[in-house]
Amino acid sequence: MEMKAAERRAKILDALEEHYPDAKCALIHSNPFELLVATILSAQCTDERVNLVTARLFQKYKTPQDFARLTPKELEEEIKELGLFRNKAKNIVAMSQKLLLEYGGDVPKDRESLESLPGVGRKTANVVLSNAFDIPAIAVDTHVFRVANRLGLVSRAPNPLAVERQLMKNIPKDRWSQAHHWLIHHGRQVCEARKPKCDVCPLLPYCPEGKRRTMEATN
Ligand code: SF4
User: Fold this and answer.
1) Which of 67, 82, 86, 169 has the fewest CB atoms within 10 Å, i.e. the most exposed one?
2) 5-22+139-218 sits in which CATH class?
3) For residue 123, which of 96, 159, 175 has the smallest C-alpha distance?
4) Which CATH number fits domain 32-133: 3.30.1490.20, 1.10.340.30, 3.40.50.300, 3.90.226.10?
């Protein structure tokens, strides 16, 4: 039984890899600090929108020093087209100040330190660890949560942390970071929240939710 489940998961991962060979972080950044700022900005916003804002923002402000000197009000003006901009401005200024005070202006490479920074939760820490430092991690956003549950890569995981833990158990460590990108791409392009395109999904042969939906549609 377990052998079968492991085989099915391996087939899913292979198919995802085949379909999204170039999947990578969609937030444009040129160093760990920019990625950290962009990830904080991305809460409840599309990556495209964040990229438009950071293209302008990072021209003017580049380093933790630059951001630490701003007042939250000044930063709000720069990012106000993004949702939750007040909170994000406050957190980014405070995060930059803490980086300077406690980490010599460098983004730390461990989860505990990252999560101690204002505005940085587990998901943001995972994005930074995996994309900036190549440390295997699986950030669970809304797409990863939905698609992993539908595909049965996790079993009835009720919250993001449970999804992350089960994915880490069920996926080989050297595929964690890529699996995060594959699931996001698949969630955006095919396995959409309201109307998953099961009829054209390459994962349908391995997907319990897809099979259930297509059965219902033909009955
Ligand atoms: Fe999503 Fe349907 Fe594909 Fe399953 S078969 S992954 S539910 S689109």
Assistant:
1) 169
2) mainly alpha
3) 159
4) 1.10.340.30
Cβ atoms of 99 and 107 within 8 Å: the answer is yes
Give per-residue pLDDT as tens, 49-87: 999 999 999 999 999 999 999 999 999 999 999 999 999
Chain CA centroid to CA 122, Å: 10
What mean pLDDT value characterizes the chain?
Answer: 95
| CA 200 – ligand 1 centroid, Å | 9
Same fold, 5-22+139-218 and 32-133: no
- Positions in the chain short of pLDDT 50: 1-3
Q: How far is CA 4 from CA 11, 169, 219, in A?
A: 11, 16, 28
Using CA atoms in the order 130, 141, 171, 169, what is the torsion angle rounded to 10 degrees? 100
Q: pTM of this prediction? A: 0.91
Domain boundaries defined on the chain: 5-22+139-218, 32-133
Enter the DSSP assignment of 85.
H
Cβ proximity of 126 and 138 under 8 Å:
yes
Cα of 121 vs centre of ligand 1, distance in Å, is 29
Choose which residue among 16, 153, 198, 200 to substitute to test ligand 1 binding: the one with the highest number of ligand atoms within 8 A of its C-beta: 198
The pLDDT value given to residue 59:
97
